[in-house]
Description:
Layout: H1 3-10, H2 18-24, E1 36-39, H3 49-64, E2 68-71, H4 85-95, E3 102-106, E4 109-111, H5 123-135, E5 139-142, H6 146-159, H7 178-186, E6 192-195, E7 204-209, E8 213-218, E9 225-227, H8 235-245, E10 250-254, H9 261-271, E11 277-281, E12 284-287, E13 294-296, H10 307-313, H11 317-328, H12 332-338, E14 359-360, H13 363-375, H14 379-393, H15 395-401, H16 405-412, H17 431-434, H18 436-439, H19 455-468, H20 475-489, E15 491-492, H21 495-500, E16 507-508, H22 509-521, H23 529-536, H24 538-551
Parallel strand pairs: 1-2, 2-3, 10-11, 12-14, 15-16
Antiparallel strand pairs: 3-4, 5-6, 6-9, 7-8, 12-13
Helix pairs in contact: 1-5, 8-9, 11-13, 14-15, 14-16, 19-20, 19-22, 19-24, 22-24
Amino acid sequence: MDNIKLAALLFPDVTLTPEDLEAKYPPRALPEGARVTRFAPSPTGYLHIGGLFGALTDVLVARASNGVSFLRIEDTDKKREIEDGVSAILKGFEAFGVEFTEGVTGFGTETGDYGPYTQSQRVFIYHAVAKRLVEEGKAYPCFCTAEALNALRERQEADGALIRGYFGKYARCRDLSMEEIEANLAAGKPWVLRFRSAGSEDKRITFEDLIRGKIEMPENIIDEVLLKSDGIPTYHFAHVCDDHFMRTTHVIRGEEWLSSVPKHIAMFKACGYKVPKYVHTAQVMKLDDETGDKRKLSKRKDPEAAVSYFVEKGFPKEAVIEYLLTLLNSNFEDWRRANPGVEAMDFPFNLKKMGASGCLFDLLKLTDVSKNVISHMKASDIYDCVAAWAKEYAPEFYAIFTADPAFSTAILNIDREVPKPRKDIAKWDEVQNYLSYFFTEPEADPALLPERVSPEDAKAILACCCANYEPGEEKDAWFARMKGWCPDLGFCPEVKEYKKNPAAYKGHVGDVSSVVRLAVTGRTNTPDLCTIMQLLGKEKVAERLNRFAAKL
Length: 552
């Protein structure tokens, strides 16, 4: 067959050649060993936590080698695409500070010299490569209808064929003559372009996965579709063209794509392109609440599958990234202990430290990580984060919280920036309740009094505090003053002394402070009580002491 003639017949308007593309997209001028990675989502829904996991891997691999990471949007599946899907993806990355070197940056905007970075705008590339494949006899038009393909599958089932698909004797359009092709085209029959596979059923290929090691798989024998009837490429063909001309060195993607490697390698080689390094990451899993077994995070069952969940709950971006890094590299926690003040993104990421089996996403572990991260943040930074979160998700609290920024920041600074800061905030949606007694009158419950303290003794403690409280005293002086009240109230000023002879006292100084804490905050556990009372002011403290005493 005259393949040159066939190529001209199928692509009469394509004048661009692969050589033109090689000149347009030359090899990148990067340091030796630099890695070029890509994250290539489809705009078919929200950004999944697994997507953030994968994108973070791409960015870190590139950063660790002084390379390049880019964001490519794979929008060839128009049936599944959702409106403004790209914005949802970009907002997810922005919320967690994941930044690519180049690629799509917004609606209709991008940065970098290897674009367009949206596949639907790269059709000129796919058609130029497809035409060359036809010229070389490595691709052909297929006119099979949906009915014909269904009949093919039924025939394979009847034959007991071990491999299903369009290949060998089942590939009815593979050996059409030029006359038959011309007649079909003249009749206006729709066609797809198929890859003419050179694979054999009895051969196998081997390749190196940088996480899983050497892998052996059957050679590809399927004549995969390269271009659909509308001229848009399939994922497989677009992947090969894009990653070659964008000069991707490392294709990092989920393990579900592992079975596609033989067909991709076959296409790379057919095009004359260097095969990139492949890295297939484990899926993000969770323990099923009902069975206790590991399962893949589900968009339908698990709200935490969407990264927007963590934004809405107010997990700090630093905490989410920190936690994901513990899943990505087994040595991250050791590195963090040795480098407590270093940015997480400066971690020397290593692909060889990634696990091959599914990693378990544990919300409780994330919560612990988040508490630790927040405990080491400055009060002013926490204020900014809480204000930004509340403005969008809790507007009534935002108005109260931001009415006096200095006051709110001072509250957040209690027991902070000390050697052992409190770890009682895990996410921003907890702050409103955490600080509520500063902004509204607490409802102190008498049932929460220490068990050794009677209502009468509690009233005496509150009266003593009301008469003797001096808000100007520092913490140690204030607590010493409270110890001084104890003998007249029948309580021991020293806890150790009380434990030696508990029958001699009604209780100890800890019980006395607990009564005051309950009256002032309505709670039994709070940050430093002295500072709380100072921030509330003497008048407000007296009101609360008297109010609780009256309740008793």
